[in-house]
C-alpha cells in the first residue's frame, strides 16, 4: 500500500477546525529568503487557513543578529511560536529554540519538552511534529509495534532521537543507525519497520519482504527541482507492505501535527481537554 499523506492530513485538519470567535494565533520567524523555507512556511500558512486560525510571519534578513532575533522572539505574544529551520550558520540554533517559551514551542524542540517526552511519551499535549506524523501513520494502518524490530536511520533531535524514544514507549525494539553504523544494509534487512531520516537519496535500496517503510528524508533529486526521499521508491515499493512516498507522504502529516500542537496549546490555555492519542493502551499508560 502506498500511503496518501495529503488525504489523511486533510481529514485530520477538518477535525481541528476552530469555530469559536477566539482563535489560536501562530507566530512564525523566517530568516532569509530560501525558496525551500518559504515553501514550508506557505504550507503552514495554508494549514492555518484550513483550520481557521490566525498566523503571522516575521521575515528577517539573512544577516540578522542573534540578539535581535532572540529579543523579538521573547516579545512575541502568540499562542504558538516557531522558528523555521534551517537557520544561517552564524546563528546558534539551540539558543534560539530555547528562547521560545517552552509552553509556546509548537515545534516541540525545546529541551524541556523533549525531557517531558522522555518521561511521559505520548501523554504530552505536544509532540515533535515529524515523529508524531510517523506514529499517526502507523496508527492509521493499525500497526501494533509491540516486539517489532524497528531500524531508525538518523539520530537528530528533530526526528530520530524523539521518535526512537516514542517507539520504545510503545514497546518496540529499536535500533538507531547513523553515519558510523557498520553493516547498515543488514540492520535494514532485519527490520519489520524501517524509518529513514538521513537526507541521503537511495540510501534504502532493499528491505525484508512485507516490511513497513516510512521515508522521512528529503533531498534534491538528480533532476532540478525534484524532491526525493531516502528510499529507492521504485524498487522498495515492490517489497514493502506499506510505504510512504516523497513528496506526499510524511510531509503533509508533519504540518498537520503542527496544527494539532497549536490547538492543544490553545485548548490548555482555555482550560479545555487536549488531544491525547486514544489508541494508547493501558500498558503504555502504566509503564
Automatic annotation (TrEMBL):
Could you tell me which residue ranges the Tetrahydrofolate dehydrogenase/cyclohydrolase NAD(P)-binding domain spans? 128-269
**One record GO biological process:** methionine biosynthetic process
- In terms of superkingdom, the source organism counts as Eukaryota
The terms describing its cellular component in GO are: cytosol
What GO MF annotations does this protein's record show? methenyltetrahydrofolate cyclohydrolase activity; methylenetetrahydrofolate dehydrogenase (NADP+) activity
Record keyword GTP-binding present: no
Q: Does the keyword Amino-acid biosynthesis apply?
A: yes
Its pathway is: One-carbon metabolism; tetrahydrofolate interconversion
- Where would I find the Tetrahydrofolate dehydrogenase/cyclohydrolase catalytic domain in this sequence? 4-107
Spell out the InterPro entries in the cross-references: THF_DH/CycHdrlase, THF_DH/CycHdrlase_cat_dom, THF_DH/CycHdrlase_CS, THF_DH/CycHdrlase_NAD-bd_dom
Which keywords fit this entry according to its UniProt record? Amino-acid biosynthesis, Histidine biosynthesis, Hydrolase, Methionine biosynthesis, Multifunctional enzyme, NADP, One-carbon metabolism, Oxidoreductase, Purine biosynthesis
How does it associate, per the subunit comment? Homodimer.
- Any idea what this protein is called? Methenyltetrahydrofolate cyclohydrolase
User: What organism is this sequence from?
Assistant: Paramecium octaurelia
Q: What is the lineage of its organism?
A: Eukaryota, Sar, Alveolata, Ciliophora, Intramacronucleata
